[in-house]
Amino acid sequence: MSKPSVVFVTGNANKLKEVQKLLSNVTKYEIINKNLDLEEIQEASLEEIARKKILQAVALLPKGQRIVVEDTALGFDALNGLPGAYVKWFLKKMSLDELVKMLEPFEKKTGEAITTVAYSDENGDIKIFQGITKGKIVKHRGNLDFGWDAIFEPLAEEGNTEALTYGEMTKEFKNGLSHRSKAFKLFEQYLVDN
Known about the structure:
Its EC number is 3.6.1.66. This is Inosine triphosphate pyrophosphatase. The protein is an alpha/beta fold. The protein has helices spanning 13-22, 46-60, 87-93, 96-101, 171-175, 179-193; strands at residues 5-9, 30-34, 66-76, 83-84, 110-120, 126-137, 152-154. Strand 5 (110-120) and strand 6 form a beta hairpin.
């Protein structure tokens, strides 16, 4: 008999690989992927964005499926959390260098990387999990293939004693301290317990 599945809704191949690795200890479910065209919700509340995203996915997929979505944000402390959930749109209009330059007038160059995971079980009950990693916004260093990874340097107290940006880290090291790994560890524990 095959295992029940959890459908991870994403069109981002890098994100899919990362999440499959993060959930590799969940053995009672098979993590499968569905690329759905979900509306990009514009909202300040990360939890509300994730909740609306999961409701869209539930409406588009067959009833009774376990579904998970995630949304990631990068907030600058000097800008009261902006660009936040809008970082994807900022990066469509500007380079990483221009994004970092936004902080030039400010002394504070810190921020938070946040992933919010929304899960709907087979009954449609929704749970929200969030992971946050604090860091510094720096000139880009390392691999430029994954969004804003190259400009985010997690703080030493987050476990980044070598002062690397996400873009300079191995996938294994990044998965040990990233905002996404923190959110998916909470989700993983929930799946194991339920």
